[in-house]
From TrEMBL:
InterPro entries: RNA_pol_sigma-70-like, RNA_pol_sigma-70_dom, RNA_pol_sigma70_ECF_CS, RNA_pol_sigma70_r2, RNA_pol_sigma70_r4_t2, RNA_pol_sigma_r2, RNA_pol_sigma_r3/r4-like, WH-like_DNA-bd_sf. It comes from the Bacteria. This is RNA polymerase sigma factor. Pfam families: Sigma70_r2, Sigma70_r4_2.
Length: 193
């Protein structure tokens, strides 16, 4: 374990030299990034959660944590912050956006410039393809997607309208999103060799 992480336990980080603060944060970031990224699967959200975890720790220092338990304690704080973040953003997780179907212009075009004309054309064609894939879905899948995206109904409202359970609605939404993702992977060879 890095001795600089022990500063989190013993003193007020806010009183440290800015360069030392930055070094401490980088070590904290490197320690927690893999586990938080595994939970959130989104780089910007992961960075937000790590920063929030770090701020939570320094707001409450000095701490009464044994040195041998420091790393697990830091990971527990990051895990709890991740769970709180997921709960706050639960509605957003249920939406299907083109980015959720692994749309990365560098993957599609094989080029590094996501702002090129070719990338813009690819993105537009992909959006049209996604709409076409949705039209090919079973009627119930199309219907739940329409209620979720266009009408922005909650699971409860959708279940009441369809006369089914909320769990049935969740399952239908999940299956419809997965079906669209599979079609994109197959026809656009996203993520393939």
């Amino acid at each position: 374990m890095s001795k600089s992480l022990l500063i989190l336990l013993t003193g007020d980080v806010r009183l440290l030299d800015p360069l030392l603060q930055e070094q401490l944060y980088k070590q904290f970031y490197q320690l927690l990034y893999p586990s938080v990224m595994y939970m959130l699967r989104d780089h910007p959200s992961t960075e937000d959660v790590i920063q929030e975890s770090f701020l939570n720790i320094i707001r409450k220092c000095p701490h009464e944590v044994e040195e041998c338990k420091l790393i697990p304690w830091l990971r527990t704080i990051a895990r709890n912050t991740s769970i709180s973040y997921l709960r706050k953003n639960q509605k957003k997780r249920d939406e299907l956006l083109p980015a959720d179907v692994f749309i990365d212009n560098t993957l599609l075009t094989g080029k590094g410039d996501p702002y090129s004309t070719e990338s813009e054309v690819e993105a537009k064609l992909l959006k049209e393809a996604i709409i076409r894939y949705i039209r090919q879905l079973k009627p119930i899948y199309r219907h739940v997607l329409q209620m979720r995206w266009l009408e922005q109904l909650s699971y409860k409202e959708m279940a009441a309208r369809l006369g089914v359970s909320e769990e049935h609605v969740r399952t239908a939404l999940h299956r419809s999103r997965e079906a669209v993702k599979r079609k994109v992977e197959q026809e656009w060879k996203v993520g393939g060799p």
